[in-house]
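[retry 2/3] GNAT family N-acetyltransferase: previous attempt timed out, resubmitting with same input.
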Amino acid sequence: MLIRYKKTFEKIAMGLLSFMPAEKEIKQLQQTIKQYEVEDNWQLFLWKYEEDIIGAIGVIFKGEDTVEVQHITVNPSHRHQGVGKSMVNAVTDLYKNKAVVPNEDTKAFFEKCSNDSTQDCE
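[retry 2/3] GNAT family N-acetyltransferase: success.
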């Protein structure tokens, strides 16, 4: 289930985002979280499965009709189970009147998902 990021989820969100290659350094990670908190066109969503938050997906609104996915991350113990693809589908459903597109960091993941192979889509 997709839930919107709140400040109370900061530590878990930072932990999940730290799995992204560009977010390895703590200063960069803190800056990214801050942008999700203060920038109106940045939205971070968390993926809740049962009682645990196991994934995160972050988007930036690019103009009126485009949503760019800039972060997709899943807890390593829940990878290769279709969680990432489920998050992309949930964001696509949420913004069904907009084009949901990847950025350079998420492009390869989108390409894996487009071949409909859930096993490779993590």
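[retry 2/3] GNAT family N-acetyltransferase: The helical segments are 10-17, 26-38, 83-94, 107-114.
[retry 2/3] clearing retry counter.
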